[in-house]
Amino acid sequence: MKNGYIFLGAPGSGKGTQAKKLLDASGIPSVSTGDLIRSEIKRETPLGLECKPYLTSGKLVPDTIIVRMFKQWVETHAVATFISDGFPRTIEQAKVFDVLISQELGYTVTIVFFKVGLKTLKKRILGRRICPKCGNIQNEFFNPPLVSGQCDRCASAFETRIDDTEEIIQTRYDSYLESTMPIIEHYKSQVITIDAEQGPDEIFVSIRKQLSV
Ligand code: AMP
User: Fold this and answer.
1) How far is 158 from 28, CA to CA, in rounded Å?
2) Which domains does the chain have, with CATH numbers?
């Protein structure tokens, strides 16, 4: 059976962390439109330059650009099961997802909704530290590095995301409320809700149990 899991939730709700955990534990690949965009920006491609102003102001990148990126990933990764982290994020994107993933490619679609409050989100986002070398993610508040500013796994200097700032968080959260929350209503019966106030290991157990993966 072909399964497409949409990880849906506010920025900082833990979607990316859980997608990585599932890849390690069950080998389920994931596509993160945010990661695709950051990679384009880092390589300073024309697409990256086009997307950068949106990302750095916390606004959503236009649907046409995102849809193109997502379709390209799906076409080059013909997998039986996948996680989509951060796509769809608007109703327009959800409609494209439904036609391509459900109707044309025959995946069964389940939405995993990460439910969490703004106070927790802010702490997670402002404390987030990412290792550019090994991909390890830690948090200054919840699992601080043993040596300040250094990755516990490979000792490389940690980086922070350019949009993980106090000012941009509010814009990202507003976009989420306005554009992404209506998707929950769009999918209704296909939604599984996870209490994402919990720690990463507890969230992981809940997801595996609910999805049977
Ligand atoms: P994320 O890594 O998912 O938090 O995404 C970071 C940023 O990338 C967002 O704030 C948007 O600017 C952009 N982005 C990622 N996914 C989408 C999407 N599906 N639609 C529009 N913009 C997106």
Assistant:
1) 26
2) 2-116+168-211 (3.40.50.300), 128-163 (no CATH)
Q: Which tokens belong to 47?
A: 């697409």
What is the H or E stretch that residue 82 is in?
strand 81-85
Per-residue pLDDT tens for 14-58? 999 999 999 999 999 999 999 999 999 999 999 999 999 999 999
> How far from each other are the two terminal CA atoms of the chain, in whole angstroms?
13
* Whole-number CA gyration radius for the chain: 17
Burial of 121 (0-12, 13-18, 19+ CB in 10 A): buried
Q: What residues line ligand 1, using a CB cutoff of 6 Å?
A: 11, 33-34, 37, 54-55, 58-61, 66, 86-87, 89, 93, 163, 172
Type and span of the H or E element at 121:
helix 118-127
Output the pLDDT for position 98.
97
- Of 53, 65, 23, nearest to 163 by C-alpha is 53
Beta 137-139 vs 128-130: how paired, if at all? antiparallel
- pLDDT recorded at residue 152: 98
CA distance 175 to 25: 32
- Going by pLDDT thresholds of 50, 70 and 90, the confidence category of residue 168 is very high
| Mean predicted lDDT score pLDDT of the chain | 96
Which of 37, 124, 137, when mutated, tests ligand 1's pocket best, judged by the most ligand atoms within 8 Å of its CB? Answer: 37
